[in-house]
Amino acid sequence: MAVLRNGCSVYEENGVMKLDIGGVELVQVPVEVLWKALNDPTMLTRCIPGCKTMTEIAPDAYKVEMQLRVAAVGGSFEGEISLSDKEPPKACRIKVSGAGTLGHGNGSARFEIAPEGSDGSRISFQGGGEIGGLVAGVGQRILSSVSKHLVGRFFTALRKELETPVEGAAE
Q: Would you state the pLDDT for residue 89?
């Protein structure tokens, strides 16, 4: 199985919804291939659930447009993603912020990549954020479940992109 562990908790603190997320995933590609994919806006646009566009606005900084549904609430979201503290090809910090019809949020996470087996990679991630507005009103339990589901969809899409053989390629 590709998921080793994956967790998410949502809680209220001083009137603000907080989100803690972390996990470990396995991807059957070398570390360098995974690093390149996680730094490729075209690849990320295809893998981030609901991402419609990802446009570079500065080195390692991107404007994103998303269409998301959380429980019975759906809407658009615009924000920014930036990468920092890069240690190629093994670690990076990602920061996200944005707002839209669903509300607003911001957060950051650190991911670390290590070799796994003969030709695979293990990616560990840990982060947190704050959520406000309409989306925060759906409740902690639903937000936790949706957050975990979205992370799962991202890694499923990433594995599909990276691990699926290209049709017609030499074997």
A: 97
End-to-end Cα, the chain, rounded Å: 24
Mean pLDDT, the chain, rounded, equals: 88
Q: 122 near 26, Cβ under 8 Å?
A: yes
Tokens 């070398």, located at residue: 30
What percentage of the chain carries pLDDT values higher than 70? 91
Rg for the chain, CA atoms, rounded: 16
Q: Are 117 and 4 in contact (CB under 8 A)?
A: no
pTM beyond cutoff 0.90:
no
- In whole angstroms, what is the distance from residue 153 CA to residue 162 CA? 14
Could you tell me which of 164, 170, 169 has the C-alpha nearest to residue 37? 164
Written as one string, the DSSP assignment of 92-150 is: EEEEEEEEETTEEEEEEEEEEEEEETTTEEEEEEEEEEEEESGGGGG-HHHHHHHHHHH
